[in-house]
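Journal club prep, shared notes

We agreed each person brings one worked example of a sequence with its structure written out as tokens. Mine is Branched-chain amino acid ABC transporter permease. I'm keeping it raw so we can talk through how to read the token line rather than staring at a rendered picture. Sequence first:
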Amino acid sequence: MDLFATIFVDGLIYAAWLFIVSVGLTLVFGVLNILNIAHGSLYAIGAYTSASMVGAYFGVGGDAFPWGSYVALIAAAILVALVMGPLLERGLLRFFYGRDEVLNVLVTYAVFLILEDAMKLIWGVNPYYVYEPYTLLGDVELGSLFYVGYDFAVIAIAIVVGLAVWMSLNRTRTGKVVLAVIHDPEMSRTMGVNVPRIYLGAFVAGAFLAALGGAVTAPMISVQPGLGVNVIIVAFAVVIIGGLGSIPGAAIGALMVGISRAASVHLLPEAELFIIYFVMAIVLMFRPEGLFAKTQARKI
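Then the structure, token by token:
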């Protein structure tokens, strides 16, 4: 019984931060129709920036109020979104809207490579450790199992993020405008909607979610070069399983990947990486467009 509980909780923890990253990726695709490979680099920049800001916070006397390090984590994600979002969307991607999907993938892949080298120039190649926020919430006992409280805080953040994104799209006026742009940007433009502003806002929101995923996981891992590569590969698996552009699909996909990975780690460690793509292959065999793919209008 403890083994199944361990698999479930470990899978939930892994799925939580993965969902935060994946929902940003699927949001950008849903609005801009661009599969943004550079999303992984935004995650890594968020992790590096949060590690630097938390380190600076404790370096100037933050030990007197360690809880302020959580503010530094969120502030790092906001900073990355406000700087990198407009820079990439207005400075580059807007010139490729409506172009071939393969070209867009190549452009974002080029950005990904540039940002990976830029991070090495800025932060070097040595790993960063920012453990202080991870220890503040103590331990949580679940029967005979013990977990770090911070892990459950990440689950709570993922739930809040999912509800916030869903509510913003489905229960607000701005969200209705975004959905209109998703379904028909040309008609939305003729109705007076500022489509470029919607694109910019969606990309900044996606960049914030990527950076937030990096910020909340920075205390849990070693922040080092190559971080974005691993994340974007798994995030792609999540959004493909759930369906590109689907918020509920990102949640279900993250849960499937998280629990299957946890089961593999505990039962068959050799298949840890294989199991993620095995689950993706099984889903695509029966649902080639993903579990919650957007309905495509049939052209006559």
